[in-house]
Amino acid sequence: MDIKVAFFDVDGTIVDNHSKKNQSSDMELVPASTVEAIRLLKENGITPFIATGRSPFMIEELLKGLEIDSFICTNGQYAVMNGRVMYEAPYSQALLDEIVAVAKENHVPLLWMPTHHYVLSGENQEVLLEALDNMNLPYPIIETNLEKPNYKIYQMVAGVTKENEHIFEPIEEVRIVRWQPNGIDLLPKVGSKATAIEVILDKLGLKPENAVAFGDGLNDIEMLQTVGCGVAMGNAHEELKKHADYVAKPVYEDGIYNACKDLGLI
After folding, report:
1. Which CATH superfamily is domain 5-89+191-262 in?
2. Where do the domains of the chain lie?
3. pTM, 2 dp
4. Which phi and psi (to 5°) does residue 225 adopt?
5. Which of 2, 9, 26, 216 is catalytic?
6. For residues 53 and 31, what is the distance between their CA atoms, to the nearest angstrom?
7. Are 215 and 240 contacting, i.e. CB atoms less than 8 angstroms apart?
8. Selection from 207, 111, 193 nearest residue 153 by Cα
9. Over the stretch 205-264, which tens digit does the pLDDT of each residue have?
10. Topology, domain 93-188
């Protein structure tokens, strides 16, 4: 394989969210072998990207700790390479208005994600606060009302159970991806991690076969399908494994390091 870039999901891939360790930072949940694998990838001329559903402000510590300066955030809506914005696709105001209307009617809380912070608003906020706590994510800014923001929004999360997610299905521009029992991403149908990867590869003059991607969740399916080699972690959702070219060991069993070794990347 002639791999030039490697894309890594964060939660469940780089970060072992299910670790029983008491930790004060994400870096404490990154296996030492993963840190070493990323160092060796760079030594071998392979540029690592973080590719996550998180907003940029939520991965600053990981970027510093792993010495990575290229990333795709908010499930592909915002991408940066070497400090330069490569791609962005904020939600249109019309789409935000549709989402807010449904949320208000059904008393559903929403998490708004710009690049610099995130805001939780609406009713029944404890539903999403529990989901964020389970993922060890920082506490959001709290607002009571669902107000129109005066900044660009790159991702929306709604607090609904599996039984109630159908309320958003009439919104034609949205696709629903569940990431917690009480939380769903409301993603634009035209955007994904895969979309951002395609733009990056095109701007770098690379082909899909020059890229590898590692993930564990349903929002990683398109990403794994877009690159030449898609790797599902051993702890990944079973559906994702069906779309992988290679299934690694779990994150907590040195999955990334061993996969990179097996694939001849390090």
Report:
1. HAD superfamily/HAD-like (3.40.50.1000)
2. 5-89+191-262, 93-188
3. 0.83
4. -75, -20
5. 9
6. 20
7. yes
8. 111
9. 999 999 999 999 988 999 999 999 999 999 999 999 999 999 999 999 999 999 999 999
10. 3.30.1240
Rounded to the nearest angstrom, the gap between the alpha carbon of residue 204 and the centroid of all alpha carbons in its chain is 22
| Sheet containing 5-8: order of strands | 84-88, 78-81, 70-73, 47-51, 5-8, 211-215, 229-232, 246-247
Structure tokens at 89: 């696709």
Give the DSSP H or E segment for 261.
helix 255-262
Q: Are 82 and 102 in contact (CB under 8 A)?
A: no
Sign, Cα dihedral of 148, 151, 157, 159 = negative
Residue 97 annotated as catalytic = no
Q: What is the three-state SS of 119-145?
A: EEECCCCHHHHHHHHHCCCCCCEECCC
Q: How far is the CA of 82 from the CAs of 13, 27, 67, 79, in angstroms?
A: 22, 21, 11, 10
Report the C-alpha dihedral over residues 135, 136, 140, 142, rounded to 10 degrees.
Answer: 80
Helix (H) / strand (E) containing 196: helix 193-204
**DSSP 8-state code for residue 176:** E
